[in-house]
From TrEMBL:
Gene3D superfamilies: Periplasmic binding protein-like II. Catalyzes the condensation of ATP and 5-phosphoribose 1-diphosphate to form N'-(5'-phosphoribosyl)-ATP (PR-ATP). Has a crucial role in the pathway because the rate of histidine biosynthesis seems to be controlled primarily by regulation of HisG enzymatic activity. Pathway: Amino-acid biosynthesis; L-histidine biosynthesis; L-histidine from 5-phospho-alpha-D-ribose 1-diphosphate: step 1/9. It catalyses: 1-(5-phospho-beta-D-ribosyl)-ATP + diphosphate = 5-phospho-alpha-D-ribose 1-diphosphate + ATP. This is ATP phosphoribosyltransferase. GO terms for molecular function: ATP phosphoribosyltransferase activity. It holds the Pfam family HisG. Residues 54-228 form the ATP phosphoribosyltransferase catalytic domain. PANTHER family: ATP PHOSPHORIBOSYLTRANSFERASE, ATP PHOSPHORIBOSYLTRANSFERASE ATP-PRTASE. It comes from Parasulfitobacter algicola. Its EC number is 2.4.2.17. Keywords: Amino-acid biosynthesis, Glycosyltransferase, Histidine biosynthesis, Transferase.
Amino acid sequence: MTLKLGIPSKGRLMEKTGDWFKAHGISLRRTGSDREYAGAVDGIDGIELVLLSAGEIPRELAAGRIDLGVTGSDLIRDKLALWDTRVTELALLGFGQADLIIAVPSAWVDVDTLDDLDAVAAAFRRDHGFRLRIATKYHRLVRDFLRENGVADYQLVDSQGATEGTVKNHTAEAIADITSTGETLRANHLKILSDGLIHKSQATLYKSRMSDWTDEKRRVIKTLKDRLNLD
Ligand SMILES: Nc1ncnc2c1ncn2[C@@H]1O[C@H](COP(=O)(O)OP(=O)(O)OP(=O)(O)O)[C@@H](O)[C@H]1O
Ligand SMILES: O=P(O)(O)OC[C@H]1O[C@H](OP(=O)(O)OP(=O)(O)O)[C@H](O)[C@@H]1O
């Protein structure tokens, strides 16, 4: 049985994943038409390419349907409970960097820290009769972070895109989202809490702990690790 490597089929991480492997003498190529999600690996035997969305790669690794996968470390941590019991990090790839942060309206001049947010949240509940809303798609990471930091009086509102717009649209009071240049936050009059960094994400190569590691696959991964100069 060949070893299955899952890589993003589109989006931000796709091209740079190909470049990273190429720099190590391994070329990933699409087979079939531009629109067909099939691929092959040249330069090393015994690896099959599986093209997936970045967001689905954590689940496929955890189910053992792929043996290796490239995706953002934010997606692994958010989508998999106890992620490090299900996958192992093989290499940080040095691209796809983004910070998952908590931001509030810039107009909240007295709110700079999580403690301030906690105080505002308690007052908000008293005044409005419902909990302050934080819009995000990163439910697990945000809940864990706020619990560890003693913020309790809030509710999460699911937002799968354009999250920074939810404050202006009055569907949330604060947000937790990925930022890289900070442009989107600025354009939407939001500021990051000084202690509001939840996770620094980057594209990472993971190995599944859940897949069936046959002798043949172990041989292939050893060759691959040698080629990639990994321990
Ligand atoms: N500016 C950014 N905005 C959003 N995500 C970013 C940014 N920079 C890097 N990333 C990372 O890119 C990854 C998401 O990749 P991509 O945009 O290809 O997926 P997606 O389209 O959001 O998800 P899916 O493929 O499931 O639809 C995440 O790990 C995220 O941290
Ligand atoms: O700090 P910046 O460089 O401005 O980038 C951050 C923005 O980019 C992403 O959105 P994306 O373009 O993926 O759209 P989305 O809202 O649909 O997720 C992310 O969700 C932020 O909104």
